[in-house]
Design a protein that fits this description.
The complex is a heterodimer.
Chain A lengths: L1 H40 L5 H5 L12 H32 L4 H15 L2 H16 L4 H26 L2 H9 L4 H12 L1 H16 L3 H4 L19 H9 L4 H33 L2
Helix pairs in contact in A: 1-12, 3-6, 3-9, 3-11, 4-6, 5-6, 6-9, 7-8, 9-12, 11-12
Chain B lengths: L2 H16 L5 H51 L2 H4 L3 E2 L4 E2 L2 H32 L2 H16 L2 H18 L1 H7 L20 H25 L3 H9 L4 H30 L2 H7 L16 H8 L6 H36 L1
Antiparallel strand pairs in B: 1-2
The chains are: A mainly alpha, B mainly alpha.
Chain lengths: 280, 338
């Protein structure tokens, strides 16, 4: 009996040690990746990165045009995706919480949420780039918007569902029409969560490369024309990292550092918003 | 809510109502306008919800339409041949499909046990004050853009593997009968194994956070009962928590698998983009998404483009099935938890 007990205790100790090791293993990658990024990227970080255009091979330069391009594409995607996402989420939580359309949309939205982003890129290529005959920043923005929509739909629906019904009943009892109840009462009650959803969506798309490869492509010049190809940080990193030139590779590392820091800052902000939103 | 605007809307209706005997027409007009706005808003949200449906059906229709020329030219053989020759315009999808499945399999082989162990640590062993920070740190791994994994994999991880792990594998497992072909050939650094390992790191947070959530949802009474009859912590986790949370864990694993199958940039950097099927895991290969990312903008000719879109369609169908199963599983456990 005591031998059996010893075996059980041993396997328990082994399992605990393994779980601790697994956790350290997981955390180790985070530290390793961030450390490497800082090591390679920090050296190249200077004012010139934010004020100069991407250089030809062998010259020095910065990342001004891809940074501006990324900001424009992200802004465009949020401007297109957020209203559609919020409205769709509103329907699902407010009007049709229990109807068939909602459950179908919820299922489809969950699929879209984790669908491979490169497939979204192919889709936008087929419906926008091919008919227009050329790559464009607009197509890139729409491709990113297609990634924003499911994220915003999901958080909007979740957050509106959390709004207590008493608020809606109180508004209705003083004669407020349904649409005003939603816009004036429910949106305000769920504001922190909905903003979080948009922030998460921005974090998600600011690192997206695959859907931009064949929609907005790249542009060596500081073009802000939405009807022309447009540079973006991820695509420039992709191109520069795979190039044989040392200058380009080091710019790629710097760009990678900038994106990662931006994305991590966004997701940490989003998290703290959720947290503060929960406390009344 | 600023008081002035609230008054303007709600009291407007009430005030107009109060003077109904004098201005019957105004009363009706205001209510009509409100009713109209109400209906319009409702239809607007409904249209947005339907737009989400159209988005997915649009993706499917566009992919099918774009891939028709390839399927018309090669028929079913497109799925079963591994030739990929842009010069003679002969294309087959087997090599990318094989690469996608193998890299995802390697990823899940590592991520599932490690992710479950981390979830076990977070729910059963970790001191309360450390749970949140560690959980967030693991989830941040999912927040790092995939291109970062790619550049890190190419410049840091692949050379590291080439010098350390891969020669070791070739010397040891490469001599074991039966699995020797899997670890044969020179250590390139890049290849299926490297891609699989990076995918494992990327998928890890998905498996971990969903497993943790379903572990936490296990009723404490069950665990207390098990502890009460003298189970060790591990036995409680293994024989009470895991079976109870099984469906949810499978859902989380499938969700991670969906991610691994469709992951593009990280894989593109380290897979080597070679359209062939090698027995060795150390050999360069390609995946569906890496082929599309590498070749699409340079594809000349309709058949080449169409073949790449057909690859995209195949990827979409595979991930759709995997994700649908994942959602179904997670829905089941949500219902049970209530």
């Amino acid at each position: 009996m005591s031998a059996r007990y010893a075996t059980r205790r041993r396997s328990n100790a082994i399992a605990m040690a393994l779980s601790l090791a697994a956790t350290l293993f997981g955390l180790g990658w985070l530290v390793l990746i961030l450390g490497v990024l800082l090591w390679h990227g920090l050296g190249g970080l200077s004012l010139a990165v934010f004020t100069q255009m991407t250089p030809p091979p062998g010259a020095s330069g910065g990342l001004l045009n891809p940074i501006i391009g990324s900001l424009i594409l992200t802004g465009l995607a949020v401007a297109i995706g957020t209203p559609i996402g919020i409205l769709a989420g509103t329907y699902m939580a407010e009007y049709g919480r229990y109807d068939r359309l909602t459950s179908v949309v919820r299922f489809i939205n969950d699929i879209l949420l984790s669908a491979p982003s490169i497939v979204i890129g192919l889709f936008i290529y087929e419906v926008m780039v091919a008919p227009m005959g050329h790559f464009s920043g607009l197509a890139g923005g729409v491709a990113l918007a297609a990634i924003v929509i499911p994220v915003v739909v999901r958080t909007t629906e979740d957050m509106l569902t959390l709004v207590p019904n008493a608020l809606r009943e109180a508004a209705t009892s003083i004669g407020m029409p349904r649409s005003l109840t939603i816009m004036r009462i429910c949106y305000r009650a769920a504001r922190a969560g909905m903003v979080t959803g948009v922030l998460l969506a921005v974090a998600r798309i600011s690192g997206e490369t695959a859907p931009l490869l064949f929609t907005s492509l790249n542009n060596q010049f500081g073009s802000t024309n939405l009807n022309a190809p447009m540079a973006s940080l991820p695509v420039v990193i992709f191109q520069f990292a795979l190039s044989p030139y040392k200058d380009w590779q080091s710019l790629a590392w710097t760009g990678a550092l900038i994106i990662t820091m931006a994305v991590l800052a966004l997701s940490i902000t989003a998290r703290s918003l959720i947290r503060s939103g929960r406390q009344p | 809510m600023e008081p002035a605007r609230r008054r303007s809307v709600v009291e407007l209706a009430l005030r107009e109502g109060a003077v109904v005997s004098v201005h019957t027409g105004t009363h009706a007009k205001v209510l009509d306008r409100l009713r109209l706005g109400d209906a319009a808003f409702r239809q607007l949200t409904r249209a947005a919800a339907i737009a989400v449906l159209l988005l997915l059906s649009g993706v499917i229709v566009a992919l099918i339409e774009g891939s028709l020329p390839a399927f018309r030219a090669f028929g079913f053989a497109f799925l079963t041949t591994d030739r990929w020759n842009p010069v003679t315009e002969k294309f087959g999808a087997l090599a990318p499909i094989y690469g996608t499945l193998v890299t995802s399999f390697i990823a899940m082989l590592i991520a599932v046990p490690v992710g479950l162990m981390i979830a076990f640590f977070l729910t059963e062993l970790c001191p309360q004050w450390l749970r949140r920070p560690i959980g967030i740190a693991i989830e941040l791994l999912a927040g790092i853009p995939s291109i970062i994994y790619g550049i890190w994999g190419l410049f840091v991880f692949a050379p590291f593997l080439q010098e350390t792990l891969q020669p070791l594998l070739i010397e040891t497992l490469g001599n074991v009968p039966g699995i020797a072909p899997l670890f044969s050939g020179p250590p390139y650094g890049i290849g299926m194994l490297t891609a699989g390992l990076i995918l494992a790191i990327m998928v890890l947070p998905f498996v971990t956070s969903i497993s943790r959530d379903v572990f936490e949802a296990v009723p404490p009474v069950l665990k207390e009962a098990a502890y009460g009859v003298g189970c060790t912590t591990w036995e409680v986790a293994r024989y009470v928590v895991l079976p109870y949370a099984r469906v949810g864990v499978i859902g989380g694993v499938m969700l991670g698998l969906g991610r691994a199958l469709g992951e593009t940039m990280a894989v593109t950097f380290v897979i080597g983009n070679a359209h062939r099927i090698s027995a060795s895991l150390l050999a360069p290969a390609t995946t569906i998404s890496a082929s599309i990312a590498n070749e699409f903008t340079e594809a000349v000719g309709d058949l080449y483009t169409s073949s790449l879109i057909a690859l995209g369609l195949i990827l979409f169908v595979i991930t759709f099935i995997v994700l649908a199963v994942a959602r179904y599983m997670l829905l089941r456990i949500e219902r049970r938890i209530g």
